[in-house]
Amino acid sequence: MPRMIFVNLPVADLAASMAFYKALGFDNNPHFTDDTAACMVLSDTINVMLLTHAKWRQFTDRPIPPATSSEAMLAVSCDSRAAVDAMNEAAAKNGGTADINAQQDYGFMYNRSLADPDGHIWEAMWMDPAAIPQGDAKQG
To answer: What InterPro entries does this protein map onto (predicted)?
Structure first.
């Protein structure tokens, strides 16, 4: 069985956060969703658990950081540059913030950062490994 990741995020408004992630292309798994938490599925191996603040506090005594702080940036790959742009546009139209950092375009790699309604930072990125510039290989 492949390893899976469940990113757990504290959210102030569960319904609004579910709608936000749905707009970004996540599906809801009702088996792990109730009025305190929701499992939003991006792929067979990537899930985001949205937890109300009360539910979050059942797992840790550490404080929930303010939305203006950064503790992690979660990068997710997209199928194309257009998909990166579409994710950022969906974020802006659904309660999030697009382009919270300057977009980066290296030709072979393109990314844009967004924040969800609670300030959690995501980076939508596309990369063409075949187009990565080949530098001089150092022999050691």
So the answer is: Glyas_Bleomycin-R_OHBP_Dase (IPR029068), Glyoxy/Ble-like_N (IPR053863), VOC_core (IPR037523)
